[in-house]
C-alpha cells in the first residue's frame, strides 16, 4: 500500500475516534513505520511473525525440572501455536507428564523426564526457531485448506499461493482416540 493510502486510513481512524469521543496516547502510537511489534508479534508488509525476543526466550529456556516449569514453557510456546504445524502432536509427550505428577502428588519431573520428552522439547524449540511469517489473506485469491489426522491429534493449515495464513492443531482425547482414521480426518476438516 502507498504512503498516501496510509495517510487516508489514518485520517479515517482519527475521524472515527473523534466521533466516538475516544482519545489515544500519542506517545504509544507508531505511525508511518514499515514494521510494528504488538502483543508479541511483528507485523510488516510480508505478514505476521513472532517477536524475535520472545522466541529467543523460548530457545534459551532450560529443560524443566518441575511440572510448574513445564507448564510455563508449554504456555509460552503455546502462545505461538498458530505458527507451528502439528503443535498438539509435538507437545503431546510433554503434556503426558502432567497426570504422572498429579498421581504422585509431586511437582518434580525427576525420573519422569525421558528421551521422548527431551525430543519433544527440542523439536518444539527448533520449530519455534524456524517459524514462517504468516501471510495476510488476499480475498481476491483462492484459499487452500490442508488437513491431517494422526492417532493422537488433528491439524490444519490455511494457505494461499503456498504461503501459510494460519495453522491449527488439537489433541484428541477420550473416545476421539478410538475413532477410525476416516472419522479423525473428517473431524480435522470440521474443526478447521
UniProtKB/TrEMBL annotation:
This is Retrovirus polyprotein, putative. Residues 113-192 form the Reverse transcriptase/retrotransposon-derived protein RNase H-like domain. The keyword Hydrolase does not apply. It comes from the Eukaryota. The keyword Flavoprotein does not apply. Transmembrane segments: none annotated. InterPro entries: DNA/RNA_pol_sf (IPR043502), Retrovirus_Pol_polyprotein (IPR050951), Rev_trsase/Diguanyl_cyclase (IPR043128), RT_RNaseH_2 (IPR041577). It comes from Perkinsus marinus (strain ATCC 50983 / TXsc). Keywords: Multifunctional enzyme. GO terms for molecular function: catalytic activity.
Amino acid at each position: 500500500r502507498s504512503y498516501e493510502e496510509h495517510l487516508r486510513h489514518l485520517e479515517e481512524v482519527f475521524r472515527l475516534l473523534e466521533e466516538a469521543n475516544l482519545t489515544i496516547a500519542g506517545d504509544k502510537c507508531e505511525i508511518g513505520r514499515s514494521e510494528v511489534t504488538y502483543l508479541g508479534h511483528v507485523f510488516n508488509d510480508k505478514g505476521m511473525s513472532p517477536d524475535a525476543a520472545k522466541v529467543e526466550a523460548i530457545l534459551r529456556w532450560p529443560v524443566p525440572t518441575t511440572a510448574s516449569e513445564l507448564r510455563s514453557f508449554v504456555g509460552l510456546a503455546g502462545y505461538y501455536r498458530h505458527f507451528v504445524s502439528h503443535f498438539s502432536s509435538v507437545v503431546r509427550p510433554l503434556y503426558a507428564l502432567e497426570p504422572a505428577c498429579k498421581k504422585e502428588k509431586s511437582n518434580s519431573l525427576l525420573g519422569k523426564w525421558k528421551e521422548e520428552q527431551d525430543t519433544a522439547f527440542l523439536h518444539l524449540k527448533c520449530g519455534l526457531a524456524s517459524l514462517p511469517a504468516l501471510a495476510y489473506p488476499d480475498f481476491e485469491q483462492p484459499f487452500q485448506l490442508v488437513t491431517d489426522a494422526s492417532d493422537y491429534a488433528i491439524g490444519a493449515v490455511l494457505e494461499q499461493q503456498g504461503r501459510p495464513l494460519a495453522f491449527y492443531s488439537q489433541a484428541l482425547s477420550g473416545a476421539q482416540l478410538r475413532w477410525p482414521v476416516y472419522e479423525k480426518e473428517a473431524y480435522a476438516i470440521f474443526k478447521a
